[in-house]
User: Fold this.
Amino acid sequence: MSHNTFGHLFRVTTFGESHGPAIGAVVDGCPPRLTFRREDVQAALDRRRPGQSRFTTQRREPDEVEILSGVIDDGAGLLTTTGTPIGLLIRNVDQRSKDYANIAQSYRPGHADIAYDLKYGVRDHRGGGRSSARETAMRVAAGAIAQLVIPDVVIRGALVAMGEIEIDRARWDWDEVDRNPFFCPDPVAAKEMEAYLDGIRKAGSSIGAVIEVVAENVPAGLGAPIYGKLDGDLAAALMSINAVKGVEIGAGFAVARLTGEENADEIRAGADGHPEFLSNKAGGVLGGVSTGQPVVARFAVKPTSSILTPRRSIDATGAEVEVSTKGRHDPCVGIRAVPVGEAMMACVLADHLLRHRGQNG
Amino acid sequence: MSHNTFGHLFRVTTFGESHGPAIGAVVDGCPPRLTFRREDVQAALDRRRPGQSRFTTQRREPDEVEILSGVIDDGAGLLTTTGTPIGLLIRNVDQRSKDYANIAQSYRPGHADIAYDLKYGVRDHRGGGRSSARETAMRVAAGAIAQLVIPDVVIRGALVAMGEIEIDRARWDWDEVDRNPFFCPDPVAAKEMEAYLDGIRKAGSSIGAVIEVVAENVPAGLGAPIYGKLDGDLAAALMSINAVKGVEIGAGFAVARLTGEENADEIRAGADGHPEFLSNKAGGVLGGVSTGQPVVARFAVKPTSSILTPRRSIDATGAEVEVSTKGRHDPCVGIRAVPVGEAMMACVLADHLLRHRGQNG
Amino acid sequence: MSHNTFGHLFRVTTFGESHGPAIGAVVDGCPPRLTFRREDVQAALDRRRPGQSRFTTQRREPDEVEILSGVIDDGAGLLTTTGTPIGLLIRNVDQRSKDYANIAQSYRPGHADIAYDLKYGVRDHRGGGRSSARETAMRVAAGAIAQLVIPDVVIRGALVAMGEIEIDRARWDWDEVDRNPFFCPDPVAAKEMEAYLDGIRKAGSSIGAVIEVVAENVPAGLGAPIYGKLDGDLAAALMSINAVKGVEIGAGFAVARLTGEENADEIRAGADGHPEFLSNKAGGVLGGVSTGQPVVARFAVKPTSSILTPRRSIDATGAEVEVSTKGRHDPCVGIRAVPVGEAMMACVLADHLLRHRGQNG
Amino acid sequence: MSHNTFGHLFRVTTFGESHGPAIGAVVDGCPPRLTFRREDVQAALDRRRPGQSRFTTQRREPDEVEILSGVIDDGAGLLTTTGTPIGLLIRNVDQRSKDYANIAQSYRPGHADIAYDLKYGVRDHRGGGRSSARETAMRVAAGAIAQLVIPDVVIRGALVAMGEIEIDRARWDWDEVDRNPFFCPDPVAAKEMEAYLDGIRKAGSSIGAVIEVVAENVPAGLGAPIYGKLDGDLAAALMSINAVKGVEIGAGFAVARLTGEENADEIRAGADGHPEFLSNKAGGVLGGVSTGQPVVARFAVKPTSSILTPRRSIDATGAEVEVSTKGRHDPCVGIRAVPVGEAMMACVLADHLLRHRGQNG
Assistant:
């Protein structure tokens, strides 16, 4: 991972700011002869798109993706990858830069704008510039391409905690995820979240969340030793999502309380000759290499710093000010992070599949 | 990060197995004209070395490091870096491969050996081969070189939880860390850990832990946007340590329960013209870029899979067996992960300092 | 260098095919606070643009570049870089895919189309797809950005040989380069080339060329040892240009005939404290590191394979055919390679400046 | 390529100076389950070893390679790769640093020592430190490992010109290469070189050379578009060899004089269904991708700067001095560059095979 590119053989480079003319991505290293339609990528983008419920920012972005290269169109919209880089472009439509006029010279506490200014000595204050969650649209588009590389792998994400509300895993239902505006797999918790987040939203506040992403049918053997571990790359990929402050694999931080006996996933001879693990504390990864079990990752998303309550801060001259943000924002950015987490999982797995195939034939 | 190399401008490549003739590292990209002594690297290694208390493996490795290149010796042992790659070598001394005879053909539940075999179709069963914690000695040596690049940055690690025992942060005392065999900053908790881990050890069991690493005096501005974020690279670096299953920055997973008001670190004008943050939920990183606050990371280490209690597993032929491990092992591998976490922090910060200086002049 | 990205800290990724909707580039790692205008990039593109004389392809491409990200516009067209990736886009306008109908199923001898098909099992036959010289427009745009990073470095290219015609170095005049359609620094040779290339052009044939690129005011110390040598990276960069089959630094292949006495550039104490070299056989690079002398590189460009004369070949089914190309083409692609060579030199030097600054402070 | 590492999936990192304790390499990404013996690597090293005739430096280095990791020994010396990094080490034995006492403070004209000093502000003057040809021993060792990855590919190098003497290609005989001390394929030219180089040697002078490396049975499809071209990587790899000033593929610089008709390699339907090319001006690479034809590369090696004739130079204080070198040196370093060129070809092809297999399955 370097600057704005991630991946090794399956490589994704993104560019673009929240309030510039466009955002885009280059997906490089995609194998040839894979087929898809522009609508497949669009469908993935639509899942992440803002403004679909009152619980996400009211910015209206159609997020129409244009595929600029790397494919041959059969004339009926069926695209075949050629092995060359796939250029993707989305024009920004609904930028209201004036929303940001009042914070142009101030730093929002908890926001990256002060860090960018400390680093670069210049910042694009409109909507957070490059640090905006808008960049994640391109990850979702890239993730749709990545999914072509690993067609048998099923990747699904879910929001498993929001503020004080945690789901009950006994009620986990993947179908439920698409039935509520939170990607929540527990219908009871989803109901609670609705009331809870309405309160947050009306108060002009925001709240954190935890997302879980599960990849099933992952081939065994993905991941390289030591610094190219599958979980190391997953950690970097998930931590690179805006507002993420923690990443777990399998049992995660809970392992600190486990004994060796409790933690070790016992193994039996599976019916099909593959090892059959009796539990999945490991989250599908041992020694940085996939075992064939579902790969399970979780990440924590902090509440957005764009809130109505005035907070103490400074401005670009160093003078002390109070800052509150009136722009359109997500009361819980964790919600829209669900498809982004899925996309990052897809990209990491696609990359590691190609790398493994390269080294191992 | 790729295979066995990490870093971009400050690059570390390691090699070597637990029970082969030697382990080694190449530190590439180190700036020229830095001075140190072999003893400085050795001192760092001695902190991590096994066999220093009854709570770590009884394997006796002097871990004497040889510096093969990249420096000029003034004749009195003062070494000056030349800008060329620094080769480091440690001979393995106390390999008792016979300890592993009984598990040569079986897979330890929770251990990487099955994953390596699934990946490569061959494994070095002696002591875990490449997946052994022995590799981390080279990280510590590399970390000592990295520290030369960031001389003003103070990096300290501590074990903050072991099994059921968590430290009381009100009692945190950095000096205490070197007074007990656990790198524990809380003298009361350290006492409890002693009795607790004796019990684990005598039962032939093992236990997990949580480590915290804090870097002070980190310059603002380190970290690149999106996929080269400081916290993204830290997450990858810490997750790459053996047995780590979770990584947090700042408030970490706790952010899921925070509101925007609670999470945002307010800012005042500091006496010296720098921004003064009133709290550090961010862990010193906003938008992937350091703010000048202490960088705070935590990681969870699972209990080692090498335990005496027989566990259900399979062997290389797929037959069902019971496995228990009689070799010398750490009842809590988290202890020796403390200096390794410090080393990874040093390597990541050194790399990002060079990268920032490169792009920003 | 990897797939479609080159550079380490100053990184350029390109995408797009000759006959797709657009070509584009992402310039990542550009330092912040550099100022330029869109017209500066456009001017560089205009130098390379086809259709400006009868000696280049008659394809009419305005090559209007759009700058999509990474800059702040002051409202009057002055752009300031922000340190984030600069997205560049050029829409293709004058695609006449039907020109290629007759070669859709056949392989042009000497052309990359058969190689792409052997590799990917699919190819974009229209205008050579990704292997078209059209991709080099993006390199020129990226080179204009790179030049901002090395403002004092003066980079100039010239065509020094075309077929049987070689320039006389005694007549070298940089001003002459912009006065003839060949970028030729020798007015006498330029005159000869005009008649010579008219003959080639009318015969539907093509011819090779040699380009020389000179960078003056290059700081000493750029280049990393062994595999990151300045001349190693230059060699890769120049060889990556379409149709290039050879690269030389300084005296180049002529060194094979020199003795040590003839080859060594003697050194005297310069007036300003810098070393003064009495000759420049080294081409400004010793041991892979710049010495402060002008960096001199040459590269040979083969004649395009798109010619009217029928040549023996096969088609995609393996059947033997005769192929001739009727599309619009350059009788000497070497001509338009001059600005491309300059751009690659700029990108390599910018990258190495950032790398050197990173490691050396 | 970066600093001291090259390759993408098959990665080689080298370290060590001419007069330090040892030189070494880490070969990372080698596929598992390949078998070889230490003697195979040693045999490759022995070909490059100095002191085997009066025409190479009289430094006596046994160059005994130690294999430190990445393999399992069956007890009888048969080594099986495990997929983990292969550590290689050679101890320096015959360092006579006093030979360099007289040039410790002066810069040899044409040598990298001044460039290293300009870059790093410090240099290891003993034997050229890192810029010594001694580093190439590790490339040869790595090349022997690379050859395991491409067992069917036959790579052979030859010296085709030395000073004024060029070989007659009509007399090319690969068997002759091992019968003379020059790796010269033409017995008549080899005889002439003997007398010629004796003259150079006795005069304390040195001379340049041209090397050709040919790889046969290279699979079609190796090489990635644009910046990961097979010939681009070859150019970087060969230019990275000490003293190389030019690289050619196929017809090389001669293409400048060719018409499209002369340059295009015509194609017929081969007996085995593969395309059959009627000539090989392309040197086996079209559009950066291998075609199945032999890959042919040439490179020019300058004469060593270590000569007896006094040359004008300066010392580290900037004072003007005369420099002559009395240490042991090669009158024609091009000779020992032959096995190094073969090794670089092997490494590049191995890397591209893995990359191709990764992307293309």
Notes: Chain C touches chain D through 114 residues (CB under 8 Å). The mean pLDDT of chain C is 92. Helices of chain C lie at 38-48, 113-120, 136-149, 187-202, 230-239, 260-263, 334-360.
